[in-house]
Amino acid sequence: MATRKPMVAGNWKMNGSKELVQQLSDAINNVKSDQIDVVVFPPYPLLPMLTATGVTTGAQTVSENEPGAFTGEVDAQLIKDIGCQYTLVGHSERRSIYGESNDTVAAKFARAQQVGLTPILCVGESEQQREQGQTELVVAAQIDAVIDKLGLAALKDSVIAYEPVWAIGTGKTASPEQAQHVHKFIRDKIAANSSDLAQGLTILYGGSVNEKNSELLFAQPDIDGGLIGGASLKAELFTAICESAKGTV
């Protein structure tokens, strides 16, 4: 993966508790090193608790709006102020369940960068889209929405996570070869305009990553780590995945 530092990001989704913070924070801090970046995305109320333990944190989503009359939304500046460094934007569940469009995701990406958060842009296709041969078309459109709004250079201060929708929470995982193909497509797409930006861009794989398949996935030349769901809720599994990432350095 050239000189890119691997990243392992744990997305707790709507799971977690004060007890889980206590159980996992020590394990997460113990596995961190100069070799890899480890980030956790818990539900909003747990963010200050995890940040206080020294864990690098991010929000699972942020509003695209500046502060105002948006009941139930959370402003990116507030996320930054409590010590977070990252936010996910465009996770497939946000797109499919809450109807976030490519334009909305691009606006959230812009707001995150405006306040100094690093956005992790989630892209990926549904099973039907894959079967119809539309994977590259869908992924390209999701990335182009950000480029069209902010310019190619905006990707320099970001991370991309390829997460095939059909592999999230289903137990199905793209084979290392399938995942590598899309990761290479993303990197080649960026390289067509800036080879330096493309080579420096961290691209994660997300989709039923676990301690059994992470080593083979992370060994692929264009896969720089993982966006982990269920396995991030168990210390022994998450730390094992982090060790897999260290093994690629």
From TrEMBL:
Main location: cytoplasm
CDD domains in UniProt: TIM (cd00311)
Entry annotation: catalytic residues: 91, 163
Membrane-crossing residue ranges in chain numbering: none
Top EC group: isomerase
Pathway, per record: Carbohydrate metabolism; erythritol degradation; Carbohydrate degradation; glycolysis; D-glyceraldehyde 3-phosphate from glycerone phosphate: step 1/1; Carbohydrate biosynthesis; gluconeogenesis
Keyword Ribosomal protein: no
UniProt-annotated binding residues for substrate: 11-13, 169, 208, 229-230
InterPro entries: Aldolase_TIM, TIM_sf, TrioseP_Isoase_bac/euk, Triosephosphate_isomerase, Triosephosphate_isomerase_AS
Job of this protein: Involved in the gluconeogenesis. Catalyzes stereospecifically the conversion of dihydroxyacetone phosphate (DHAP) to D-glyceraldehyde-3-phosphate (G3P).
NCBIfam families (UniProt xref): tim
Name of this chain's protein: Triosephosphate isomerase
Native source species: Pseudoalteromonas rhizosphaerae
Primary gene name: tpiA
